[in-house]
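DATA SHEET
Item: assembly model
Revision: 1
Owner: S.N.
Input lines:
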Amino acid sequence: MSAQLLSGKEVAAIVRDEVAHRVAALADRGRSVGLATVMVGEDPASEIYVRSKHRAAERAGMLSFDHQLPADAGQEQVERLVESLNRDPQVDGIIVQLPLPSGLDGNRAVACIDPAKDADGLHPYNLGLLALERGYLRPATPSGIMRIMQHYGIETAGRLALIIGRSLLVGKPMALLLGAKGVDATVVQAHSRTQQLDDLIAKADILVAAIGKPRFIHGSQIKRGAVVIDVGINRTKEGLVGDVDFDSAVEVAGAITPVPGGVGVMTVASLLANTVTAAELAFAG
Amino acid sequence: MSAQLLSGKEVAAIVRDEVAHRVAALADRGRSVGLATVMVGEDPASEIYVRSKHRAAERAGMLSFDHQLPADAGQEQVERLVESLNRDPQVDGIIVQLPLPSGLDGNRAVACIDPAKDADGLHPYNLGLLALERGYLRPATPSGIMRIMQHYGIETAGRLALIIGRSLLVGKPMALLLGAKGVDATVVQAHSRTQQLDDLIAKADILVAAIGKPRFIHGSQIKRGAVVIDVGINRTKEGLVGDVDFDSAVEVAGAITPVPGGVGVMTVASLLANTVTAAELAFAG
């Protein structure tokens, strides 16, 4: 039997729709919602991401502000720009597009964002609130994954959730979200130094692959009926593929996210949701 | 064969000694170090803890400031006091003794502490830095456990570390510390909703028990040679006992922390270390 498809595309459309309604509701009360991006230097991949964020923001009825700094901009110049956006009442969400050119400190730039305008949910204060289970602006990709699981009614309580990868953007916040009260998965965080990974994969009821290696996990390794969340977006000669070998995994898993059309498309939708949440809170005062 | 004893008492004495030297070095340059506690209402257990913190601070050569508010103090009164301590140049570390009387919000009070004076390392900003692996003021108990493990040369890389408990004070920050780069354990975070706990305990190379149930884990459940860190401090008719049945575990484990004299004594030493770190950073400007 073939696994249920967890369509990020479908859920993202719902989220974008919700966001558009919330933006319209604020507009009715005379309040605009604005998303600002900060990009330093030229990077083709980053430019594509940034453009897609602006397009999505505009489709949702938001204002969007595109700030470009030259590749040789200094740290101080980046931070001054962020601080001016912190003060700008038209800006509700700020994104510093990472990675910054070498020589610049992306972490420090992100830490300059007003936590109340942190569209990516990556400011230390918001990550701390996440650990405290009080976060409201959450890292976009893990937050999108949680939304997919909720949409499809995936049970999590007491189940063994293996997260492969411990990045700040995905692995670590994912562990906090899946292990939080009310979600209640038993979370295992694995990484490149993990021994006995095969054994852990074979036992996982929920498998989140955030490794960055094309088709690293084969269906034969996966527990029958497992929920497979594939965060990988690897460019290969055959096109975009995930960290999981989809064709073999779909025969074993109970449910699986495809690549593309799975987790990836949720990320932009999630950061739009963060931005309108920030605007609503600012508007409520 | 009997397990190696991991003596928190011994390591805490070393830490306290280091702290006293660092305090003395600052004193030589005309800089005092001060620890302030905020306690609301009367709670015999909390009073004992607070007294022991002041005693330890004074022995390390610090100034210590004891602030008591009546049980009927309002949230605003607590926060005003914290903010006045934030501004007080003699105060380097601030502790809001938890739990606060019902009706008061301990989380909010802690979030009022200047993150740079957060002796307990529980401010959201510092927890976020911990997730980012850039934390310098870390939650006291997990930080004490890491110090014990370092002292005894416990290997962590690639080993399976099971943390039972997901409290903000112990379980969650412990997971972040054990899974960080350079420490590199594969971390499993279990809790009351976890299924197959026995199976996980049997596999764990490192077992951190932060459950709060006397002798919940018996030696027969533990993997031979495992490192057992017992965070439990349970008052029973026979005195203080841990979450692990020491007498049976000591025969199976490779190394084990006793109760008392294990993890518990590290907590105060760790928060003194945080306080002098805060003072050094403030002094360095």
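QC remark: The first strand of chain B starts at residue 4 and ends at 5.
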